[in-house]
Amino acid sequence: KQWYQRRVAITAGECVLLLSSFRLISSYSCVIFFLNMASNRAEKSGLSRDIQKKLEAKYSQDQEAQCRAWIEEVLGEKLSNSELGMHNFQQCLRDGQILCKLLNTLNGEPLVKKINQQKMAFKQMENIEQFIKGCKIFGLKDGDIFQTADLYECQNMSQVQTCMFAVGTVSQKNGYQGPTIGTKISKPNPRDWTEEQLKAGDTIIGQQMSCYKGATQAGMNIGKNRNIID
Q1: Assign residue 42 a region: left if phi > 0, alpha if psi is -120 to 50, beta otherwise?
Q2: What is the pLDDT of residues 51-86, one digit of tens each?
Q3: CA-CA distance, 79 to 69, in Å (whole number)?
Q4: How far, in Å, are 68, 70, 82, 115 from residue 74 at the CA level?
Q5: How much is the pTM?
Q6: Is the separation of the CB atoms in 143 and 163 below 8 Å?
């Protein structure tokens, strides 16, 4: 009887293990299925197609060349595809590894603790998501950051360029001394006025107070005179 009970318990445990394995395999299959759908997206039509064309028209190869040169100089390594072009640039950044390395280098301390080296789609998308989270910690505004699909599915590469320039701008503000890109953020320049200077300003009549070096409206006519004929 005891042997029978132990055998039933072992059989039940094996069933639970098999069910758990089946659920994991099913979940993994679903993830792969949806990622394949995303990578093989149907061609857009109608309004969506017009919007996509406008987004692609905003892409600048001149800005791409600046981004490429800056990334290679900061990291000290060449990008995988040296040919200019929106899709070529997307392939260089698609796995997210270059972006994570770039952000860690500019910050000095790693904002992205773990960079996935696998070629699986969801691992590459995870790198991009980690980069986006790191950008927010680095100091970028939400309007300067792209979404994962913008890069991974090449939906809005012009926004990726905007993000690269914003990263370069914020890196200057954070004290990075290496190569830079983008505009330089202005620094505050506070002024300390004395009481005499502040009082002297009270004696000056502003130009918005209808006084400008004695000028008046004398002699000005607006429109024709009104003639009344009896």
Answers
A1: beta
A2: 888 888 899 999 999 999 999 999 999 998 889 999
A3: 9
A4: 10, 6, 16, 18
A5: 0.65
A6: no
112, burial (CB in 10 Å: exposed 0-12, middle 13-18, buried 19+): buried
Q: Confirm if 80 and 90 have CB atoms less than 8 A apart.
A: no
Residues 134 and 104: their CA atoms lie apart, in Å, by 9
Burial of 152 (C-beta count, 10 Å sphere; 0-12/13-18/19+): buried
Torsion of CA 181, 175, 72, 126, to 10 degrees: -100
Please state, in angstroms and as integers, the Cα–Cα distance from residue 4 to each residue in 1, 13, 18, 49, 84, following that order.
5, 14, 21, 67, 71
**pLDDT digits over 4-60, tens only?**
444 444 454 454 454 455 454 554 454 444 445 445 566 666 787 888 888 888 999
Task: Report CA-CA distances (Å) from 158 to 85, 139, 165.
Answer: 12, 20, 11
Model pLDDT, residue 41 = 62
